[in-house]
Write the structure tokens for this entry.
Amino acid sequence: MLPAGGTGDAIPTSLFDRLPGDRPVLVDCPAGASRAAADPLRHADAVLLVTTADPQTVEDALKTAAMARTLGTRVLGVVCNRVDTVPPSLAAAFDAPCLVSLLAFARCRPRPAAGRSTDSRP
């Protein structure tokens, strides 16, 4: 995974030429229509958007989806974080083939055995 930085920080475009072409590369970039968001989209084969149901976050993700489509980058889908269910209006707004609720998914995951944690943080 390659972090693209904040909205004011863009990845040097020369870096994209050095990325491996024989395997997937994930780039975590800011939402919106800034240069920091647009540059990675220019080089991407596809984009998977992540948003919450917060109106400002959705607005930024919609800008990113529009920018991706303008640049000819396929929008694979949208991951909607911090919700129990994905609002139908959200699916319609993105016109994306898949929407996922991470909170609902987390509730379906098996719990670790007592005294054991799956968290690798110290």
Remarks:
- The two ends are 21 Å apart (CA to CA).
